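Incident log, support desk, overnight shift.

02:14 A customer reports that sequence design results differ from what the structure should imply. Their input is reproduced verbatim below. On-call engineer (initials T.W.) acknowledged and began investigating.
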């Protein structure tokens, strides 16, 4: 009798969804969530909020443990996406930069000076570009659920104020794991070295590199001014959104109700994470920048003409990457930015 009822229930779900129903009792004791930086960085806060909301709303059925420092891939953040696809990592809140070695289209956010402001970033993540990127990620065996934010990446260094591309000449710069960054900094006359975040921190501490580029929240939480990074140029050349995602098999193992909870929690955690990432950096509230100036740091705000010199110097890189990313996607992005 029980068995018949169960089969009838299964048939009903199959008829409604075309999928066999997942059983909550098959769940793992713990789901491993990869990030690069932990709380109190906005990135880690987004991941923790996601885990907390899911635990609360599933009454503890789904327990998510955050593993920062890309430790599940031995610190090599450029292998995070592959590990998630293969199920070595169950879930992640990951940077589009770190996943771009596998998904070339994600380099769209690293196109120099494509996004002049937060509205432009939102127009990409919240518009047809974001939808297209999520389709591509899905077709690679990973289920994307929403966006969070690392932030606009500003350039810092220990040697001198950067106001013109000339000021970059010969500076040893730590850059992230997409080759587009090598191209950008080479075009500007600097000397870029690609390094994981794990290696970047000692390199900054020992002075093995002169500078780096990261969002200002990374700068302040890490207290980079104490590592000699006393020149900060606000050039807003690229922005770094983050994606909440789940391995496909893990996703399919969840009941429809729990999928809904995990997805909604990602949206809610993303909204909170983005608010934290922008605090003190938008509109009249520039308090994060004032705090950095309060440390005695030389914060350089570029005039439109000064910024344009960097746009011009990196334009050949932008054009060279148009086809590598996909000319259609780049056009779509340019249109979204123009119509924001
Ligand atoms: O490595 C970086 O610079 C970081 C932490 O911003 C990313 O993972 C993209």
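02:41 Re-run completed on a clean worker. Output:
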């Amino acid at each position: 009798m029980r068995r018949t009822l169960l089969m009838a229930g299964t048939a009903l779900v199959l008829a409604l969804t075309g999928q066999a129903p997942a059983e909550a009792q098959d769940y793992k004791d713990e789901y491993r969530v990869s990030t690069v930086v932990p709380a109190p960085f906005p990135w880690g806060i987004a991941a923790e909020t996601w885990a907390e909301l899911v635990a609360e709303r599933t009454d503890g059925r789904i327990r998510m443990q955050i593993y920062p420092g890309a430790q599940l891939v031995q610190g090599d953040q450029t292998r995070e996406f592959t590990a998630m696809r293969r199920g070595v990592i169950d879930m992640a809140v990951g940077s589009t930069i770190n996943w771009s070695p596998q998904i070339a289209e994600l380099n769209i956010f690293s196109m120099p000076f494509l996004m002049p402001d937060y509205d432009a970033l939102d127009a990409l993540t919240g518009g047809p570009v974001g939808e297209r990127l999520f389709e591509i990620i899905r077709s690679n065996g990973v289920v994307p659920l929403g966006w969070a934010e690392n932030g606009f990446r500003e350039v810092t260094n220990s040697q001198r104020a950067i106001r013109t591309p000339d000021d970059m000449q010969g500076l040893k710069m730590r850059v992230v794991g997409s080759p587009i960054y090598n191209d950008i900094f080479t075009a500007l006359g600097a000397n870029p070295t690609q390094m994981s975040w794990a290696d970047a921190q000692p390199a900054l501490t020992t002075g093995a590199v002169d500078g780096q580029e990261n969002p200002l929240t990374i700068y302040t939480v890490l207290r980079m001014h104490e590592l000699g990074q006393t020149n900060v140029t606000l050039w807003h050349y690229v922005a770094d959104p983050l994606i909440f995602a789940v391995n496909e098999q893990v996703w399919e193992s969840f009941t429809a109700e729990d999928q809904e909870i995990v997805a909604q929690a990602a949206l809610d955690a993303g909204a909170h994470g983005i608010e934290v990432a922008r605090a003190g950096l938008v509109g009249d509230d520039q308090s994060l920048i004032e705090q950095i100036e309060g440390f005695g740091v030389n914060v350089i705000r570029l005039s439109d003409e000064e910024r344009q010199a960097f746009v011009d110097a990196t334009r050949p890189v932008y054009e060279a990457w148009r086809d590598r990313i996909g000319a259609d996607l780049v056009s779509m992005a340019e249109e979204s930015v123009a119509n924001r």
